[in-house]
Each structure stands twice: as structure tokens, then as C-alpha cells.
Design goal:
The complex is a heterodimer. By secondary structure, chain A is of the alpha/beta class. Chain A has helices spanning 16-21, 31-35, 66-73, 88-105, 127-135, 151-163, and strands spanning 2-9, 25-26, 38-47, 50-59, 78-84, 110-115, 141-142. Chain A is globular and about 40 Å long. In chain B, a hairpin with a 6-residue loop joins strand 7 (330-336) and strand 8. The chains are: A alpha/beta, B alpha/beta.
Chain lengths: 166, 643
Amino acid sequence: MIQKKICLIGPSGVGKTSLIAKFVHSMFSDKYLTTVGVKIDKKTVSVDGAEVMLMIWDLEGDDDYQRLQMSYLRGTSGYLLVADGTRQITLDQAIEIQGRVAAAVGAVPFLLALNKSDLASQWEIDQSRMDDLTARGWQPFKTSAKEGAGVEEAFVELGRRMIQPH
Amino acid sequence: MHPGARDPVEEFEELRRLLLSREREQLRDLSDRVADKERRSRDIASVLPEAVKLSRERGEQLTNALRPAVEDSFKESVDQRPQLFVDALHPIIGPLVRKSVSETLRRLLQSFNQTLEHTFSWRGLKWRWEALRTGRSFAEVVMLRSLVYRVEQLFLIHRETSLSLLHVTANPALSKDSDMVAGMLSAIQDFARDSFATGEDSVLEEFRVGELQVWIVPGRHAYLAAVIRGNPSLELRPALQETIETVHVLKGSALAEFEGDASAFESLRHELESCLRAQYATTKEGGRSTRAWIAILLIAAMAAAGLTLALRNNAKWESFLRRLRAQPGLVVTEARKGWFGRSEVRGLRDASAPDPAAIARQANLNPERIRFHWNDYLALDPASVRRRIEQRFGVPDQARIGIKDGALEIGGSVPYEWLDRVRREATLIPGVTSVVEKDANIIYDPDLARQRFEKQFGLLDTVTAVVENGVLTLTGEASHRWLTRARAAATALPGITKLDDHAVIDLDQRAFDQSKSIIESAFIYFLTDKDDIATEGFAALSRLPDEIRRCEKAAKQIGLDVTLEIHGYADAIGTEARNADLRQRRANKVRDFLVSCGFEPARLKPIGMEQPFKAAPGDKALPEQSQRRVALKVVTKPSTPAP
């Protein structure tokens, strides 16, 4: 089976960890995030009939550890960039982070997940912003940690992008 | 046609020659190349390696195409020239086999040593107690307690992606989630490196968690992470280093180009597994081997003692059985030795046979531990018959007895009484049909001989009997009848060869003698010249009948018939004729008297005696008057037995 390392990146408080909690096989506790700054989970997805094992490095989102995060990014085949759809500022932070990540690891496939899609009333990302992102070629996925919506699809899509020749 | 003009075909040909001469030259050359086999081979040879390389990179087509041909030629080659392969493989297989054998032996020896040590040492006992207490298996306790170190897991991790390339473990239960562990190991390395701001090439070489430690051995593209229980020896690190280098040698390009497919590294499993080594505590060699030797010697000694005991026991048992079987009158049909319980013996036993329990005791066996089952039977072998005789009669010290064809042979000195009983009763014993005396010297007990005599004849109060050297001496008084019987039959009694009866008085003879003497000394005096009895003659005459009867009676006792001669005497005065008549008349007178008294006339014989009476020869002549008498003479003859 093909293995791929991916990273889960995003500003703090966007619900990265809870976003994947229901979808992955986990053996380490969340405590690792605050101690080591990373927690590794595993998820197997089926991409067009091929099984791909994703080793998901859930990186602590605190900005103080930016440098630390960079070394965790090494060797990643892709990353899931997570922002909180109910807080516009996290999207800005995510875009900023993506810039730095791309600088560190190069042009590896990534996917933007706008989390907390279940809180429609508090949604702050308007359509023009969405169009803007689409124009960048980012094709954001709306996800909900609470309802589990969009998460599986996000992983499968990321897996597909990593496997297909760029 | 223009004279200078050429044939257009020729011209075209010329043109073609001018324009294409180089190409034609090349074409010819190429055609030659294709046609010339040797040149073609040379050409292909020069490109073949490159072509094979390219073909392999594209896929397995070439391999698949070549495989049957290679396999066939290989097989044919092995079939036809096996020696070639033997020679080629020998340098490899020889050391391999040697190494494998020596390794196996070493492990065997080590495991034996450990078993001994764990079995007999104080520590071994402690571990057993621990195993009992904690519910773990003894092997587990031993392993944990004697373990110096053990490489439990080994990860081959790709440096760049932190992905697990291969994971080997001594315990398959630990293999789950190895990929996540591998990732986290990388993360921790990064964490350490970043936290303490060391250089990019710095590596967290080891860290320790409880009884475990993790050693990281880095390579260019991948590193090894070894999870080790205990305290590894220093030689482990070079070994791991060598392994990671081997990995890079074998799979360098695959590592460099790793895209997430770890299956290419599966072939490294053997290399990695060879690093799953363990080292167990070895106590002082001397101590262990001493303990082992002591244990072995102890076991050997115990085994030898047990064996000796068993052999001795068995020897005793065999000896007992031999003795038993040798006993006449005992037939052992079945014997079973009970090593721990009671032994059993079955068979036949003659009543005369000795007690088997006593034989067991003689063989130093406890009869209590043997159960006997005997059936009665009659043994007819000489020894049993002899024993039966001994039991019934006893055998005197000086006697010799033997059994031959059913005959009881008796020799030596034997008391008469014993022999007598044997003669009478021996044939009642099973196995004895006759009694034969061979040179038997019969000994008679005098007292017993005397008792036999007394029993036979009824000893009178007046007689004393003594037997000495076979002579029966009687003293005292006895009736003639008794004496006669004794005389006739005493020497027929066993133990009496001669009768000495001179000292015994025959009472009947004496009575007869006395009567005879009284009768013959009675003088019946007559008056002068008359046949009238003088006064004093009457006195004598009157006493005679009683005496004669006594005499007759006594004579009868001693077997005599009595006739009385009545001698008539006369004195010398007067004529002879007268005197002769007188003598006769006087005799007749007494006869008549006695007849009148009832005596049988036939037994009375009156005789006129011509000679004068003489009291005794040599006596001086009696006075004349005393010749006028009648004297009696008792004449006896043996009585004729009554018809």
C-alpha cells in the first residue's frame, strides 16, 4: 500500500484536531500537540480504487512554534489547510501560513478546508471571498467537525491530488 | 538525336550517382552490415547491455521473456555438469552449514546450562516463586530476570517522509501501528533537534523509557530505530550501523526515490531481523558449571543409588526365588516382584515343606511384603518324603536314612523302638513302599527291654528283673508256670538275648521238694513181727494224706506225675521168708490206708524191700527196731499232657 505523509495545518482554534478525530485511527493523545507540537494519526482512503495510507501530522497551530512546524513539514506529500469559516481572520492566517509552508516544502498538493460549516448563521466567508479563493485554484472544501460533513471527501481529494502526476 | 546528347536515362542515372553517391555508399554499408552476421553480432553486442538496462527499467517484459530460457539452461547445466555447481557453491555452503550447526549447538548448550541453572539455583527457586506469585509463566520470568538486553523492535524509517519502510519485531503483537510510531519517532527527533537548536544533521541517538530504550542509527536516506529492553552491549551499535549501511547499499536508489510504496523494502526483512538479538545474563562460568556439575553428579549419584538399591533388591528377590525353587515340596508357578507394593508368589506346597516366610527372612526379605498363594499337593521327591519321615518319626543321631525308589533304607545305629515304629508305620507315608535295613545296628535300651518283658509276662511282686547287656537277670520267687513261660519266651523279646534265672526261686518246685522231703522222711513204725502200726507210726501216717496231696499238686504245677513207692521194711529178727512177707504186708497196710484216704491205687506201689533201710549212704546202721517201718518214696515222671 502506498503511504503518504500529509500535514494538518491551520491557525489555532479552527478545530483541526476535532475535525479529523472521527475519521482517523489514532494512538497518541492530544497531549502530544501541546508537548511535542505534533500528533500523528493514520487514515486509509480509497482513491480511484487504490488504497492510500495517509499519515496525518496534526501540527499545533500556535504561532510561537512556527519554526518548529516547519521541520515537521519536511517530506510531506500534501497538506490540509484548515480555517474557521466563522472567523474570517483565520482564513487570512491560513493563507499566510500556506505561503510559508509552500516556501518550505515546495509546491505539494494541498486542500483548504473551511471548518464549522454547520454554523451557517455565523459564517463569515462571503461568496466573493470564495470566488477569490477558487480563482487562486484553491477550491475550498466546507467541512464540519460536528456533523462530519466534507471531511472524508477532503481527504480523498487530497489523496487523489498527491497520487496523480502534477 | 544530338550527338553530344546523352541518353536521358543515363543522364538521370549520372545525376543520381552525383547527388546520392554518399547515401548509396552508406546504404551499401548498412546493407552489408545487415547481411554480415559477424558485424551484426558485434553491433548488437555493443548495445546489448544498454538495451537490457533500458528494458528492465521499463518493466518486467525482458525478465519474463528471458526466464524460461535461463531456467532451462540452468537446469540443463546442473544436470550435465553438477560438479561445476558443487565447486561454485562449496565455498558458500560449507561455511553456512558450519555456522548454522555451531550456532544450533551453542544455543542447545546454552539452553541446557540455563535450564540447569534455573532448576537448581537459589535464584531459580526464587524465580519459580515469583512466577507462582505473579501468575506469569516461569519462562517469562526467567526471560525478564536474566535478560541483559533484547532488541524487541526495529524500524526502518525514511528520513525525508518519516514513513515506516519496514518494521520487524520479536513479538508480532507489537507490530500494530508501527507506521504511526515511526512517524512519531521522527517527530520527536525533529522536536528535539528544533527545541535545542542543534544542526540539521544532529540526531537524537537514544532515549530511555523505563526498561526500554530507543536507539536511532541514522543513514543518509533512512534510519534505524531499535527498541531495546534492558542494557544493550556496546557491540550492538556497530551492528546496527552496519545494517543501515547495508540497507543503503542494497536499496540506495529506492530510498532516494521513495514515493510512499514500502513494498520494495520487504526484501530487507532478513537483514533487519538479524538485528533482533538478545543477550541473557551469564553468571560466573565457573559457578554455573560447578552447579551444573554438582547437579549432574547429584542426579547421577541418586540414580546410581536408586539403581544399586533396585539391583540389590532384585538380587535378594532372585536369591529368594532360587531358594524357594530349590526347596523340595515347593513348586513356584508364578512370582511377581512388586517394586513398590507387595510382591506375590503362587505355587504348590507340600505339607512337609518348610515355611516360605522363613526362607524369605533368610534371603533378607520382609515376608510381610510378600503375599503367598499356595495350593496343597503331595510331593514325592526323595527330599520331601525324607522330610515327611523326619517329621513323623524323627531321625536318631546315629541313624542314616535314605529314599531309593520308594524304599526307605535305614543304616547306622538305630534304637530298636524307633526302628520298630518305622517298620510298622513307614509305608503309611506317601512315597514309601518298603523299609530296607542296610547294615543297621540296632540299639536296645535295657530299661525299655525290661519294660517290654514286664509288659509281656506281668512282673510278679516277688520277682525283680534287670536287663544288662542283653541279659535278663531275674531274682526273687516265682511260680513254676510263670518261670517256664519266661524261660521259653524271654529271649524272643527284642533286647533280651539271654535269661539268667539262677537266682530266682521256683516256688512250685520248692513246694514239691518240701512235700517230697516231708513224705520221704516220714517213718511209719510197726510193731515187732506184726503189720500193725505202732503208735508213733500212726501219728506220722495221719499227717501223710495232706502232704501227699500237696506234693501231687506241686508236682502237677511243675509238670510231673507222682507215683508213691511204699517201701516195707522188717528187722533182721526172724526168718527171711517171714520177714519178706512181713515187709510186703506192712507196705500193703500203708497202701490200703492211703487208698482208704482216697488216693488212686494205681499211683501207689507197695514194695517189700529186701535191703535194710538206710537213712543215707554212709550212715551208721540204725538200731534194729527202727527197721520195722514203712518209708515212702516219691517217684516222678513228666506228666503226659492231657489229650
